[in-house]
What we know:
With 83 residues, chain A is an all-alpha fold.
Amino acid sequence: MEETIRxxxxxxxxxxxxxxxxxxxxDLFQAGMTSHASVNVMLGLEEAFDVEFPEAMLTKSTxxxxxxxxxxxxELTVAEVIR
Amino acid sequence: VRVGVDLASIAAVRASIERFGDRYTHRCFTDREVEAxxxxxxxxxxxxxxxxxxxxxxxxxxxxxxxxxxxxxxxILRQPDGGCAIALxxxxxxxxxxxxxxxxxxxxxxxxxxxxxxxxALCEPTGHEMFDVAASARRDTAKES
Lengths: 83, 145
């Protein structure tokens, strides 16, 4: 999962640094990701993992780090399985 | 009074439209906003970028960053006089009502590679805010003396 998240971030986060230099809990917004870029990251994640982020999850904290994104995706994936 | 300001890259918005198409526009903008931003790809991207900046500026003015919200819950509407107005929906409308935001005013612009927006929110005065201002002034006076 982390590798795919990094691929999505590399394609859409528009970070001024290489994604490989970002640790799992580094703050992506502090690293240079804008709110607009986070929308693209969200759309890229939805494509890559075949999920849809509900409104309640559309917060900065959901997308603030690779770790936070992983947790959100696991939550969404579990919700899909239960449904 | 609260103020929010934001910049948006026109090229970034155009790239998002080209990459994600309607999925992007429908997640960020209402049907009325999309209809209002017709024209060549350059004009469309500039108009949508200005609206995205206005949405972010509104979120800043409302201090709504920590909360979950749909980008379409801030809607930028063209007015007959050529200006724009802001309509809030859903959770952001509830937050604005809770915080006593009575009126929002927005100004949009774009030039070259960037679009920008400023939003001013007029809020009902509260005793708490006045107390904070007075306390802050006292602290400043104490530091100076």
